[in-house]
Amino acid sequence: MVKSMRSSMMWKITTYLKVFYDKFKITILNNKKRAEKEKSKRNEYQEWINKYDKINSKKIEEIRFKVCNFRNKPVISIILPFYNSNMKFLKLAIKSVENQLYPYWQLCIAGDASIDPNIRRMLAKHASKDGRIKIAYREKNGHISEASNTALSIADGEWIALFDHDDLLAQNALYEVACAISKNPEALLIYSDEDKIDERGNRFDPHFKSDWNPDLFLSQNYICHLATIHKSVVDKIQGFRTGVEGSQDYDLILRCLHHLKHGQIHHIPKILYHWRAGSGSTAMDPDTKNYTTEAGIKALKDYLEKRGVDAKVEQGSLPNTYKVKYPLPKPEPLVSIIIPTRDQFELTRKCISSILTKTIYKNYEIIIIDNESRDIKTIEYLAKLKHENENIKVISYIGEFNYSAINNYAVNFISGKIIGLLNNDIEVISPNWLSVMVSHAIRQEIGCVGAKLFYSDGRIQHAGVILGIGGVAGHSHKKSNCNDPGYFRRLQLTQNLSAVTAACLVVRREVYNLVGGFDEDNLKIAFNDVDLCLKVREAGYRNVWTPYAELYHHESASRGYEDTPEKQSRFQKEVNHMIIRWGEILSKDPYYNPNLTLEKEDFSIANN
């Protein structure tokens, strides 16, 4: 018996060691894959730098000539607070300012009761050589907000630029800002793209940003660096606020927004700022400073309260991200969910069943548009649905399949003030999907609202539409893994996008009617949703995509692919119509970036 017990124990130990070894082996392989992927990305970015981001002597001469001929030469005051900084990195930061090709700057340095005498001597040496460098020392430590205000107090420039004590400015940074000021005289807030730089001076992880994206900014501070603000606006809000240290820049910009219009915020799609990523820095690991998320939540709550927006703010799924929850009115507005179908009993049944059993939003009706179903199971199922559910209508549509015409026709039979467009190959995942989408659709400035859709295998099918991909438009992050955070977390953040798919789209009826609904003459099958969203955007509304409404989209399961000469001919006509109708707009998506590829849907760098 003892022998048997020993044998059993040895078996358990062996099994445990095998499981442990297998897990360890998988971890090593995954880490190796990640390292190889990161190395590939760094190499790709270095190739981009060599092609597009090198400033040679000829370019320097050209910039200096242009600066001499600037009609307006605004002084830009760079705000640099520090506390017991690494002297090597602080010196490099200052050097990057001294090397600016635009000479009309002022560097305002504030030491927050910093005691290192070597730093003081180094700063004094720089100031003695260049009168544009001004230094103030605080006797009492007040942390970064008060130190920044001290730096502000010695600033004389028309513009204020925010600068961290260990980061670097690109040599052409202030020149590009001055150009933007000259070309956009209405601008009051200007920001650029940025990357990270390690302790050895290697650049990596470029952030090619969206143009002004209000809902994305309420989800995270994507503006970050380089942010330049007109001093009159900073003076109006009385500078930095204490109590939000860690997210003081985010709070500053949020409070500036009270005094800015959309057209006064300008984005420079160029890497002008290098964010130092060392051990323990937020640039390297956002988890290292959890208090920054709490400070960001406070700043965002205060901003929304001052705006009179009744909304709750929670931490997002990742550090330094936020989830703004807009309330639903009581009673909830009636939503009319339109679902076109023809036969496809199993798909349609799964779609309707998932809505009825999972959706927590109560006030909705379902309008099923039956486009000449012939399958007896489908016909019987639709009849049963209509008989057993007061909130389900089945409307017959006679004629060839024309997605645009079918949905426009269906709108004549709805009772709700809000339209929900749904494909019959959609299946609900998150019970609050409709609640979340309606909470955005009822915001007066919002037009179309899109959801996060998954393929049957769990990969991303839709996370919004990017214009220009493939010639007209493509799906953001298509085929990414379900747990992938996306490009700078965009798969996890509510944001504005040019368009969303009508496979699952919510919009107010008044907005839909205002733009004339779908184009049923020119866009019978493809791109009708992109066209609709662009018409809505043209009418002055913002379109929103939310990651908090999750559904499966068993794409093309009901209507198939463009796999016949007839379908391909029709598709090409629709492509041509979109190009004629929208022209250059398709190649200049404000919510994307000209430095990102239009050949793929993965936000990779354009290297051609």
Structural summary, described in words:
With 608 residues, the protein is α/β, with parallel strands linked by helices. It has 3 domains: 10-52; 57-286, Spore Coat Polysaccharide Biosynthesis Protein SpsA, Chain A; 335-587, Spore Coat Polysaccharide Biosynthesis Protein SpsA, Chain A. Helices cover 37% and strands 21% of the residues. The strands form 4 sheets. Strands 12, 13, 14, 15, 16, 17, 18, 21, 22 and 23 form a 10-stranded mixed sheet that branches. Strands 1, 2, 3, 4, 5, 6, 7, 8 and 9 form a 9-stranded mixed sheet that branches. Strands 10-11 form a two-stranded antiparallel ribbon. Strand 19 and strand 20 form a beta hairpin. Helix 9 (248-256) runs parallel beside helix 10. The longest helix has 51 residues, at 2-52. The protein is globular.
CATH T-level topology of the largest domain: Spore Coat Polysaccharide Biosynthesis Protein SpsA, Chain A
The main β sheet shows up as: 10 strands, mixed
What top-tier CATH class of the largest domain fits best? Alpha Beta
Return the structural class. Answer: alpha/beta
Domain module tally: 3
Please indicate the percent range of residues in DSSP E strands (runs of 2 or more).
15-25%
Write down the overall geometry.
globular
Instruction: Count every helix, treating DSSP H or I runs of 4 or more residues as helices.
Output: 17
Under the CATH scheme, which architecture of the largest domain would be assigned?
Alpha-Beta Complex
Q: List how many beta strands DSSP finds.
A: 23
What is the CA-CA span between the terminal residues? 73 Å
Low-confidence stretches: none
Helical content stands at: 25-40%
Roughly how many Å is the radius of gyration?
28 Å
* Average predicted local confidence, pLDDT: 93
